[in-house]
# Entry
Amino acid sequence: MTAAAPAAKSNVNILGLTKADYKAAPSTLCAGCGHNSIADKVIDATFELGLKQHEVIKLSGIGCSSKSPAYFLGRSHGINTLHGRMPSVATGALMANHQLYGVGVSGDGDTGSIGFGQFKHMVRRNVRMVYIVENNGVYGLTKGQFSATADVGQELKHAGRNELPPLDLCLEAIIADCGFVARSFAGDPKHVTALIKAAFNFPGTAVLDIISPCVTFNDKDDSTKSYAWGKSHDERVNDFTFVMQQDEITVEYEEGETKAVELHDGSQIMLRKLDGKHDPTNRAAAITLLDEAREKQQFITGLIYLNPARASLATAANLIDSPLAWLPESRTRPSRESLDKIVASLK
Amino acid sequence: MALSEVAGSQQTERDPVVNNFSIMVATKNGSGSQTANTALLRALFKMGIPVTGKNLFPSNIQGLPTWYTIRLSADGFAARRPRSEIVIAMNPATAIEDYAGVEPGGAFLYADDIKMPMDRTDIAHYAIPAKAISIKHEKDPKLRGYVANMVYVGALAHLLGLQLEELESALMYHFKGKRKPVDLNMAVIRASAEHAAANYKKHDPFTVERMNKTDGMLMIDGNTAAALGAIYGGFTFCAWYPITPATSMPEALISFSPGLRTEADGKRTYAIVQAEDELAALGMVIGAGWAGARSVTSTSGPGISLMAEFAGYGYFAEIPAVIWDVQRMGPSTGLPTRVSQGDVLKTYFLGHGDSRHICLIPCDPYECFEFGWKSFDVAERFQTPVFVLSDLDIGMNQWMSKPFDYPDLPQDRGKVLGAEALDRLGGFARYKDVDGDGIPYRTLPGTPHPLAAYFTRGTGHTEKATLSERPADWTGNLDRIRAKFETARAELPQPIVSLADGAEVGLIAYGSAHPAIEEALSRLEQTGLKASYLRVRALPLAESIKDFVAAHKRVYVVEMNDDAQMLQLLRLHLSGVEGDKLRAANLCDGLPLTARWITETILSKEASQ
# Structure
């Protein structure tokens, strides 16, 4: 389904590195946790893209999901921040050095509850980063409480039955003017990898809401966040191919089905409709699609909304090309004469 | 037209009081009196008379009472005075109270539509035809209220002998050379001064004369000075959330930075982000500091509370950040526009676990500028959040200041390893004490070296920044942070001490208490009480404070909070015997301290020794 960079087919990528070079510490999460699969896909995607690890920062909040960054990209700087506060730390870090790629991993509790405000404001600011929500509808690290994405009627051992409607994080992202909104399933590694690759090249915040089953607390077959549900209910709305700037476009789709969206760096995302209806460049259509799916408890996946038009925060701030963090004193301390002038004006 | 002479006319002739009195203007918030008051302040300042301007304002946009006080002091004293000799009443709602508050022997100027009994015989009375003159000069009823303020300026100018040209220059400065508003305002001032000349008989002794005590001085508020300091310190990132009285600091950054920090291609060497709350503001600042930016935020008490979790995180993850706390009275909805030094203990210990933060404590706009740039050096050198404890009085009021000195030290970016150093060293351990000063080495994201990366956590970590829950790893880490803290103690701005020969009494104070202390020392000396003075400029407390306390029998700690917060910290710092010498002299009434209160408090405590 994707046209990966040619180098990915060999054991080394464009930088001459192997996939093992992109690994980090072994996971301490439960065996079978969806999060482990996603961490592996981050490794696959960055390896295939040939990203230089020192140009990537990995960030997270608190929770099972937020442990993930320790399990990929061992040569990237990483920061495990506070519960729900990764968006603000990412905003500062990526303004301090806007040349860096950012990949953040959060969970449904981290993003949908305690960090909901920061999530929405980061999206609104359009900080250029890949923002992955490992969504399992439950708090794992505190041993099984409902999150804000839990299903109505879901039952947990101590918490009882959930009576509240779930938040749809994709819907929330679109409402906050996110230009790259996708949903996927940890049990579909190829799709996850493809989305992560495209997301790394998106010139703003790219939100990936990945349903990632919690094998310990929320993997009952009737849970919409379970492996069984994901496998049997996954309704893909579209398929796509990410074409890097230097690649030749080799995949061909039938006319009328395909739409190419060009990103700022010249790379392209070739979208192919699967359901024959959804146009992911249409914001209103994306909102309607999500809203209807939410009502019918449908599990739709795909690149639901794509619009690279909005300037990133760093672009809007008119920053110099060099990272702010690395500027020498000669460029950050104005002259003695300029201070004399200000002082004179205050006399 | 109301009478220009009422009850006060019986006053006898008195010697003139020149350049030594206070003027208080009582108006309504949002009535535009700020232009009138700052013009008056500037005119006096440019006449060479030492002045300070303090705004006592409500938490309100329009309508509630506000008072502006201008103190003239030929001796250069800058503290607030409890009462003013000249009171200008423009707000009927507070006129009775304002009238009662005039210092005996003073003068009361009032808008002539204020009707109330005025039976004091110890003060002079002057009615100001504010409405009549403003109607005549301003056709637009919406602007009349603003113009009415110039009527009291004209009346006061006549009474004080303040030359109108001085006011015109001040208005030219205020309106940045725009002739039209200057002419409009000057026409009102002239009309009012002419009315005063024709109708007032001067019954008060207050006059102004040119002198030369402000040569070379500038007039500025502390928040603007702090912002300029940050700019000359090479700040590269600021995130903030609006809160009185801290807002004008980032606003000054926003207004000064484009002119000073834009490169030839029109691009900026800094970023300023208005956050969604203070929590996010510090999150951004911590993120930027982690990535290597000189990163700053500005807030007040309630914002500090929201920042607590990030402050603790930054302390243990060892991330540089600068946080200005322009202190105000707590709690959140209490007295947000009144001053306090109430955040000392909270800020020092802010976080969870055992955190004690470096705090810098400026006493005036000059030090706001100095600490504005120095705070980045301290934060990057010690890799930790640094708090700068200013307050509303310093931050928002107009102070005379000696000119700011250009930073005399190059930027200290701290112990940062680049790719070459990593090649040479063959790697590094993020939290290892290599140099014996407790300060570890760090690398910045983006460093092109395979050994540069490390993983940052607030929780347990080894020297190599790997996750660890082993007790020995954590206690080792705490010991090193303690050592770093002790290194900082010796390197931070040291106290300023003035020893009085043979004095038994010492005063310890900090921040905006300084001008009132200086004046109180002079008053105490006149009563025969010689006292030494130590001004604390940083936390952790300097070792030399122990010597100061040891050299005196009784030491009064003067501060503006109810818990005697600095005194508590001093007790922790001193031995029991020395700590017993400390006496609290604290007041928490929302107003800047006065020399009178300090003098009386210390004299009465001394008398009961």
Notes: Chain B has four domains: 7-207, 220-401, 419-491, 496-607. Residues 220-401 of chain B form a domain with the Rossmann fold fold (CATH 3.40.50.970).
